[in-house]
Design brief:
mainly beta; Methylamine Dehydrogenase, Chain H; five-stranded mixed sheet; four-stranded antiparallel sheet; 30 strands; 0% helix
Length: 300
């Protein structure tokens, strides 16, 4: 494909009052959970227009929804705000457990930043301090095991390793021991991170460019200029394409930076991006509270 194809949404909904800051599809792609800057969570059971708020943190969290993730079996999902981490039952919306960081004089220490789930039932959490915790899904009371890891961005690499980034460093950490396996130093501040676990690739977004790294051997595979908009980046699963904001919406580009698909967004901007596990659909959360879902064609 040599020219950029423009796509229209198969579904556009507006169930949020504030900017959509986090999105997550269930493993089978049939469910979507989204969170916004007012820490509201909206759950769409079967890709219908979003109507029902199924969970609002009963302990009055402060700040935006920072991260969302489903369990590997889709039976529960996890949310992170600056003040809480929750495990929620997918069908009922009931909170199964809730973790809150310690406070001192009303100030939260080690506020959660990002969460990520593995296929073998582990939850990785990174905190503002740069430290990380690994919890088991089946623990009624989550136990925190600190690891010395960078942590404002987070993703699993298989079931044994966690990729994290903070400031000017990216590192791979062994999940059981917390030992660093590999570290990369960048010249520019890291503003976004996405990992393609099957190919062991990491896409790193800085202010001016997008870098591609082979996580197995540490090789720098190339760079491409970064587009305008928020520094979002997301691999399309099982493909050689990345999604990131462009001049007039969200673009799907090759790893070398060539645009192949464009989804235009009018009168607002993209604030979050997520794909189904098979890469067949993309969801874009926007600053006006809307969510656009796009059925993606096969791109060779």
């Amino acid at each position: 494909m040599t020219s950029t194809q423009t796509l229209s949404p198969m579904l556009e909904t507006k169930g949020h009052r504030e900017a959509v800051t986090a999105l997550a599809f269930s493993p089978d792609g049939d469910k979507l959970v989204s969170g916004d800057a007012a820490h509201d969570i909206v759950h769409d059971g079967h890709l219908r227009p979003i109507q029902k708020v199924v969970c609002k943190n009963p302990q009055s969290p402060i700040g935006p929804m920072r991260s969302l993730a489903f369990s590997h079996d889709g039976r529960s999902w996890f949310s992170a705000t600056p003040t809480h981490i929750q495990k929620v039952d997918t069908e009922t919306g009931a909170t199964q457990w809730c973790y809150a960081p310690l406070t001192s004089l009303g100030v939260f220490h080690d506020a959660p930043m990002r969460i990520a789930t593995s296929a073998n039932g582990k939850l990785a959490v990174c905190f503002e301090s740069g430290e990380m915790a690994i919890w088991s899904f089946d623990e009624d009371v989550p136990r925190r095991a600190r690891a010395n890891a960078k942590g404002h961005f987070l993703a699993w690499l298989g079931n044994d390793y966690v990729v994290s980034a903070d400031g000017f460093e990216v590192q791979v950490t062994e999940a059981t021991t917390g030992q660093r396996v590999r570290t990369w130093h960048l010249q520019e501040r890291i503003l976004g991170l996405s990992v393609e676990p099957e190919r062991r690739l990491a896409a790193i977004r800085t202010l001016h460019q997008l870098d591609l790294i082979d996580l197995m051997n540490g090789a720098h595979l190339g760079s491409a200029p970064a587009g305008p908009g928020l520094p979002l980046v997301a691999f399309r699963p099982r493909s050689d394409f990345l999604a990131s904001p462009g001049v007039d919406g969200v673009n799907l580009t090759t790893l070398s930076g060539m645009n192949v698909l464009n989804f235009p967004i009018r009168d607002t901007r993209a604030t979050s991006i997520a794909f189904t596990g098979d890469g067949s659909r993309m969801a874009i959360g926007c600053a006006d509270g809307s969510i656009h879902q796009i059925l993606l064609p096969y791109v060779a």
